[in-house]
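User: My collaborator sent over this chain with a note saying "see what the structure looks like." That's all I know about it. Can you take a look?
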Amino acid sequence: MTTLAQILRDHQGNLQHHVDERMRPEHYAAIQPILAFHARNCGEVRYQRAPCQHGANCQWLERQRR
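Assistant: Without extra context I'll predict from the sequence alone. Here is the result:
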């Protein structure tokens, strides 16, 4: 699975080359935690909300609709 962090890492040079002068400090502040987040147990970059929660989310949503 490709993560947002991986996309940012793969294209960070191009991003900086093309839009660096237009990026504001808050843009960099938003990107840095994404690049820095690593799951402790497995050493890979992961979303904080894992895709496996989809079923639980659907069940919760269905209960809310009742």
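A starting point for your reply to your collaborator: Helices lie at 4-19, 25-36, 54-65.
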